[in-house]
Design goal:
Elements: E1 2-3, H1 6-26, E2 33-39, H2 43-59, E3 62-68, H3 74-86, E4 92-95, H4 105-111, H5 123-130, H6 139-150, E5 159-163, H7 170-178, E6 187-191, H8 198-202, E7 207-210, E8 228-231, E9 235-238, E10 246-249, H9 254-257, E11 263-264, H10 271-289
Parallel strand pairs: 1-11, 2-3, 2-4, 5-6, 5-7, 7-8, 8-11
Antiparallel strand pairs: 9-10
Helix pairs in contact: 1-10, 2-10, 6-7, 6-10
Bound molecules: the ligand Nc1nc2c(c(=O)[nH]1)N[C@@H](CN(C=O)c1ccc(C(=O)N[C@@H](CCC(=O)O)C(=O)O)cc1)CN2.
EC number: 1.5.1.5, 3.5.4.9
Pathway: One-carbon metabolism; tetrahydrofolate interconversion
Protein name: Bifunctional protein FolD
Length: 291
């Protein structure tokens, strides 16, 4: 069984980005600049956004963090987005999800300039991705493709089951893996909460992607021997024996599934760090697009 090490792979990608940035600086080209907006103080979201800012420093990007209070109105957030759309120094920006309930997520994502939408969530980028046109790919699916490619996991002709149809992971990943691309050409089933007899479907799969957000949902009896397992879930499970009061659990029961898998991503240290590396890659691309 081989661990798909997202931490190590994301560090390699960040090193590659840092080299590209240093070359840009030497050539007198613009330094990439990523901005992030966070609304509220959700612990996990703050961890992810801080990690994005820290990663920018690591690769030599400029970064701007805009943190807004929990009771920010939709109008105030749309105003901040407009400012970033018009800011000539910002190459790309993201609005950290989820947003507080008074704010309409779709309205917010549609307000982002598609050329600065390094999360790839704007309908223009989703449409381009679906049509296989150049676009910003959403960072988590993009990270999974990159991990599969770097570990040379074959996808062509394979049966893939993606569990979870979210707009940011499951749905785009199901589209990407079915496309004619280097990591693609798979026969993809997109399973969700209404799927009947899920285990009979996952047991047939060469690759299972668990992206439903239920801790330790996928168990050993649900996968076949030799399958590749991608775990997208990160749930904070209360654990008083830990200093921070919780442990991180994936959507996969690692103990039982790893006994049957040929490749598997861990949590932490799997898909999560890849998400951040691919966001940086998109930001570098956004900057290059403006050269
Ligand atoms: N605007 C966006 N919002 C959200 C996205 C996104 O891509 N864009 N994805 C997720 C959260 N996410 C990125 O923002 C993210 C999740 C997890 C990690 C990560 O590195 N996880 C670590 C563990 C970190 C911890 O201690 O909790 C790991 O898995 O090793 C990075 C980014 C939802 N929102």
């Amino acid at each position: 069984m081989i661990i798909l090490d997202g931490k190590k792979t994301s560090d390699n990608i960040k090193d590659e980005i840092a080299i590209a940035v240093a070359k840009r600086k030497e050539a007198g080209l613009k330094t990439p600049h990523l901005a992030a907006i966070i609304v509220g103080t959700d612990g996990a979201s703050m961890t992810y956004v801080n990690s994005k800012v820290k990663s920018c420093q690591k690769v030599g990007f400029n970064s701007t963090l805009i943190d807004l209070p929990e009771d920010t109105t939709e109008e105030q957030l749309l105003h901040e987005i407009e400012e970033l759309n018009n800011d000539k120094d910002i190459d790309g920006f993201i609005v950290q999800l989820p947003l507080p309930k008074q704010i309409d997520e779709q309205k917010v994502l549609m307000a982002v300039d598609p050329d600065k939408d390094v999360d790839g969530f704007h309908p223009v980028n989703v449409g381009k991705m679906t049509l296989d046109l150049p676009s910003f790919l959403p960072a988590t699916p993009y990270g999974i493709l990159e991990l599969l490619e770097r570990y040379e996991v074959e996808t062509s002709g394979k049966k893939v089951v993606v569990i979870g149809r979210s707009h940011i992971v499951g749905r785009p990943l199901s589209i990407l893996l079915s496309q004619k691309r280097k990591v693609g050409n798979a026969t993809v089933t997109l399973a969700h909460s209404r799927t009947r007899d899920l285990a009979s479907i996952t047991r047939e799969a060469d690759i299972v992607v668990a992206a439903l957000g239920i801790a330790e949902f996928l168990t050993g009896d649900m996968v076949k021997d030799g399958a590749t397992i991608i775990d997208v879930g990160i749930t904070r499970v209360k654990d008083d024996s830990k200093k921070r009061g919780y442990r991180l659990a994936g959507d996969v029961d690692f103990e039982s599934v790893s006994k049957k898998a040929s490749f598997i991503t861990p949590v932490p240290g799997g898909v999560g760090p890849m998400t951040i590396a691919m966001l940086l890659k998109n930001t570098l691309q956004a900057c290059e697009n403006r050269d």
